[in-house]
Design a protein that fits this description.
The protein is α/β, with parallel strands linked by helices. The protein has helices at about 5-10, 45-50, 75-85, 300-315; strands spanning about 25, 35, 55, 70-75, 100, 105-110, 115, 120, 125, 130, 135-140, 145, 150, 155, 160, 165-170, 175, 185, 190-195, 200, 205, 215, 220, 225-230, 235, 240, 245, 250, 255-260, 265, 270, 275, 280, 290-295, 300. Helix content is about 10%, strand content about 25%. A hairpin with a 4-residue loop joins β34 and β35.
């Protein structure tokens, strides 16, 4: 899509060189043939160092766009990004793709469905009612139990186990709201990637990224009924226990443990070797590694135990 047409779609004045835009991307990752956006002034430093060919901005941030990058000024960049995302969404299934490639020794149930463009490695087991979408890549020795769904463009490594009814690569929960209160879908045009030696329990959901990749790193263990939001990164050998939830764009270091029904807010950074007890509520980034937390608001576990003891004594006194 050329830049002049994009300007019309988002109702922006266009005054500059017209060229083809291949995709939307973040300020950090965008290239000269890609377009990005700025929805918050806290990203001003990233504007100045971005290599994007064009950036959607408002009047407060347009002065920070580097020379050589086309400025597309709008009233609400986040809403404009949502509107534009639809035009860069790939087809759900592409009939022009080649037939699936199945590795030697792999067993696929006749009741499973493998879309075009998929590549499945050696010695895998794909059970009944599994759906593997277009361009999905699966490594060797991976077991996928019944009714698992893997959306288009996602990647699953070798020696993985994915239990029944889990969904990988469904759309992240993203929308922009206009002045009339209508919610405009943000199309999730990235993917989800599961590295090697990962086990995922049943009925878990791992959302695809808006741009880029939602990443589950090597050796992670995920229990049943876990939600991983879009653009999250879960570090090596981390453990996510049942009913825990990780909001979008949260990054975890290695060997993080989240107890049952614990949750994080979005856009946080969790240090390696952090442990969060059951029902912990994490609203701020954790920068120091090796600590154990509990409660809501979150506090160190020893302090939380003391607090519970004091509350219990107060109750007895009454």
């Amino acid at each position: 899509m050329n830049l002049k047409d994009i300007a019309k779609i988002i109702n922006s004045n266009f005054d500059g060189k017209n060229f083809e835009i291949t995709k939307m991307n973040t300020l950090h990752d965008a290239t000269k043939s890609e377009i990005s956006f700025v929805a918050n002034s806290k990203y001003i430093k990233e504007i100045q160092t971005s290599n994007a060919g064009a950036i959607i901005v408002d009047k407060e941030t347009k002065e920070f766009v580097p020379s050589g990058c086309v400025v597309l000024e709008v009233e609400n960049p986040y809403l404009s990004m949502a509107i534009l995302s639809k035009y860069f969404a790939p087809p759900i299934e592409d009939k022009t793709l080649p037939e699936p490639i199945i590795g030697e020794g792999t067993t696929i149930s006749p009741k499973a469905e493998i879309a075009k463009g998929a590549v499945i490695g050696k010695d895998c087991t794909i059970m009944a009612h599994v759906y593997i979408g277009a361009n999905v890549v699966i490594g060797d020795n991976t077991i996928i139990y019944p009714s698992v769904t893997i959306y288009r463009d996602c990647k699953v490594g070798s020696d993985c186990i994915i239990h029944a009814n889990t969904t990988i690569g469904s759309d992240g929960f993203g929308f922009a709201t206009n002045k009339q209160g209508e919610h405009i879908k943000i199309y999730q045009n990235g993917n989800a990637q599961i590295e090697d030696n990962v086990e995922i329990g049943s009925s878990t959901t791992i959302d695809r990224a808006v741009f880029g990749t939602t990443l589950i790193k090597y050796g992670v263990r995920i229990d049943n009924l876990v939600q991983v939001g879009h653009n999250c990164i879960i570090g090596e050998h981390s453990v996510l226990v049942a009913q825990s939830g990780i909001s979008g764009s949260t990054t975890m270091g290695r060997n993080v443990v989240m107890g049952g029904q614990s949750a994080t807010s979005g856009h946080l950074s969790i240090a390696s070797f952090t442990t969060m007890a059951a029902r912990s509520g994490v609203t701020k980034s954790i920068k120091e590694s090796g600590l154990t937390f509990a409660g809501f608001p979150l506090m160190e576990h020893r302090m939380w135990l003391k607090l519970q003891g004091k509350i219990a004594r107060l109750v007895k006194q009454n």
